[in-house]
Amino acid sequence: MRRLLALLLLLLCSNASAHEVRPGYLEIKSAGSNGDSSPVIYDVLWKVPVKGPVKLVLSVVLPEDCKARAPVSSQVIDAARIERWQVSCAGDIAGGTISIDGLQNTITDVLLRLQHAGGSSETVRLTPTQASYEVQGEQAMSEVAITYLILGVEHILLGIDHLLFVFALLLIVSGWRRLVATITAFTVAHSITLVSATLGWVQVPQQPVEAVIALSILFLATEIVHGLRGRPALTARQPWIVAFVFGLLHGFGFAGALAEVGLPQQAIPLALLFFNVGVELGQLVFVAAVLVLGQLLQSIGSMPIRQGQLAASYVIGGLAAMWTIERVAGFWT
């Protein structure tokens, strides 16, 4: 099985840049009004991912009675173009339609978050097949659960660094019982820190966390090499301990992604629960897919065990080292 996992890991690493296809983010937040008959002011934040000179040609279309109050301010931060402006609407935008022009020509999604004057909020996904949304005013609990469940699944499946960590564990751990114990330890650990950080019980700077997550992947790559040289290290002997310790760090990473989206004030426990469930479902789907594909490849043919594992460890270690350097440079500059 390990030789098959090594082949799959090489395929995954060769497409690591696919993580650049990230969703956009649109936040529309009520800034209040001067009276019952006065226009309602909304702050708009529009974040679109970019990669070098390439940027998605997308534009926000608000209800017709909403007019811009000032020029748009724009800047590029962390591979994303961020635009901010204010609009004045004749009244509350409930019942109006918000859409993303050009989204139907892409393969990405846009997360739309609305914050109303009364404190209620709505969070929905706009997709190439459904690029518009009619504002409800108050979101049903079932819609909140579904939205955050999908967000959790998408986050883990688009997080190449998290997937590589799990993939490396699969490459090291042998035996079903040890594998189940390892995945369980990782799940429990990142669930603890996800909840703690999201609810504000623990606060950790996000950039150093992301750098240490990259280091955790590099650590597993070296553990693979040690095992191939006949010197099984801690991960091979007690993988659940390593999975739990580094799982705590990965949970802070998940919390950082959730912080960008925010939680609906009227349903914080529900949204947090289903985001976490979505992360677990995505992780289980990934593990199951790897094991199933491994069985299929085993029925087709084989490859040299040592060479495949060694190549995989160097590829994953090289990527992790590159991410570490980039992320450390990011918070030192």
Present the secondary structure layout.
Blueprint: H1 2-14, E1 24-32, E2 40-51, E3 54-55, E4 59-61, E5 66-68, E6 73-76, E7 80-89, E8 97-101, E9 110-115, E10 121-126, E11 132-134, H2 141-158, H3 160-172, H4 176-198, H5 206-228, H6 234-237, H7 239-261, H8 268-300, H9 305-332
Parallel strand pairs: 1-9
Antiparallel strand pairs: 1-2, 2-3, 2-7, 4-8, 5-7, 6-7, 8-11, 9-10
Task: Please tag this protein with its features.
333 residues; alpha+beta; 8-stranded mixed β-sheet; 11 strands; 19% strand; elongated; disordered N terminus
Describe the structure.
With 333 residues, the chain is of the alpha+beta class. It is built from 9 helices and 11 strands. The strands form 2 sheets. Strands 1, 2, 3, 5, 6, 7, 9 and 10 form an 8-stranded mixed β-sheet that branches.
